[in-house]
């Protein structure tokens, strides 16, 4: 059974067709790229799969379950986590609290447990804390656990977002432009980090990215969309040499 | 050892309060001021969950307070008050003291169920609707009470002083002081446990970025419902205490003015700060008493103070910090987490 199967997903915003007949299959363990010019509909694809929008038509099946009608928190609970193009951490909460709240789906205790501080509450809070610290340590963020995210450099904030997504224990991690706004040294680190996460956590990663060196050095398969339509897919080498892709990126004059 | 410091101090405080009330060292006026202070602490710290932590705008706290007040009053009069509205008392008076906590809880549960009724429609829609729906709910509660003759309608409902008198048959203590004290400590303790757990931190996440919360696996709808029900339930307990302190209630005590008073406490204390809500409830209660001789002019002075506050310290006394953020030494005495 495929991990994720998206078939002919289409999304209209009023008259605008932001995504047309988009299909993709993850069997588990791949590192895929999603690229395309600005406004191509990449973020919309992520928004659809994470349940933020319901597709106008088409089906999204994750682990054999059709996600139509599921609230985003359920979809995330099933194992799809994502980061945002613009950082959306909870800025008035410490980094560790950000990581803890993201484990909400797996909370495993009730309001009553919380009031009486039952054994279940104490055990789960301790487990979540331990898991949170494990993630932070793995991503070299442990020293920032008690900091507010807003006090951290931009590159670190990006990494906290990835940590927060990982803390939900996903099987598919979707990264929306993780390298946006990073300097070249940070980009180097990010490439290593993503490769490491992919190996260490044994999950599928799907990333949107404008910086070609990031996509080309990490991904084994790349999909290209333009005006919502899939215009090409293939290995990095094929994509780099595909005239349709070059045309979409550079305009007609370039050819 | 240190984690026992605060319970020990609270026990000592309660003992002192009981002692000075019994010996007459503290007169009845100050006793009632202290009791209203406790009730105000419950009201402001519970409303703070919604208007502070969650960043929503509930304007009907007095309505939920009224539900708690009436449900508990009817229940306690029915069970323990001889010869009033409902005829013979159902239970012997010496049980009053033991069952009173359950009566308080019943008032709280009733209020939180009404809260649920309000929450279901209002959290489906965008934030601002809660303000309107809670105002409406408070009006509905008030006019419902005014139109039920069995509980006195607009004239009010009484008989609760017979219940407090019944408590004295068990032991001659200033019971309402004790109950208000315990109710206040209980409420603040409960809110602390809720808001500083990961479950309760979901409320802060919803406030700061609801979309991110939903996408990061937080069941935002459930979080909002839970928080709202906890808040309303505690308002109900405050109402129950209020009714029994006064010995009678009437719908006129639960107007929008009362809701506004509680909102002022929340904003004065600092949104989302539990210690701020407690501090400002104490301050406002004292201020109200100090300004009592001004009579109607009070309602010029208090808004004026608010305007000044908004001008010079819009974030309230504490901002969104807690006492332990300002005095880290306090952390030794209690654990916020775990
Ligand atoms: N909620 C919405 N309502 C209406 N139009 C929308 C909405 N969200 C996205 N769009 C439109 O859909 C198109 C695709 O947007 P999307 O954000 O998916 O692009 P993108 O590929 O992520 O671009 P970028 O590289 O700039 O992030 C754009 O034209 C955008 O204006
Ligand atoms: Mg985008």
Provide an overview of this structure.
The complex is a heterodimer of chains A (255) and B (338). Chain A has helices spanning 42-49, 72-78, 95-101, 111-116, 119-138, 154-167, 184-200, 212-218, 236-241, 243-250, and strands at residues 4-13, 16-26, 31-35, 57-62, 65-66, 80-82, 172-176, 204-208, 221-226, 229-234. Chain A is of the alpha/beta class. Chain A has a single domain (4-250), classed as Rossmann fold, CATH 3.40.50.300. A six-stranded mixed β-sheet of chain A has the order 6-7-8-3-9-10, sandwiched between helices. Chain A has a four-stranded antiparallel β-sheet with strand order 2-1-4-5, with helices on one face. In chain A, helix 3 (95-101) runs parallel beside helix 6 (154-167) and helix 5 crosses helix 6. Chain A is globular. Chain B has helices at residues 5-23, 28-53, 61-80, 96-122, 129-146, 160-167, 175-195, 198-208, 210-215, 220-246, 256-269, 274-290, 298-312, 323-326; strands at 157-158, 248-249. With 338 residues, chain B is an all-alpha fold. Helices cover 69% and strands 1% of the residues of chain B. Chain B has a single domain (2-255), classed as ABC transporter involved in vitamin B12 uptake, BtuC (Orthogonal Bundle), CATH 1.10.3470. The radius of gyration of chain B is 20 Å and the shape is globular. Chain B has a two-stranded antiparallel sheet with strand order 1-2. The model of chain B has no long low-confidence stretch (mean pLDDT 88). The chains are: A alpha/beta (255), B mainly alpha (338). At the A-B interface, helix 2, helix 3, helix 4 and helix 5 of A face helix 7, helix 8, helix 9 and helix 10 of B. The complex binds adenosine-5'-triphosphate and magnesium ion. Adenosine-5'-triphosphate (ATP) is lined by residues 13, 16, 18, 36, 38-44, 85 of chain A.
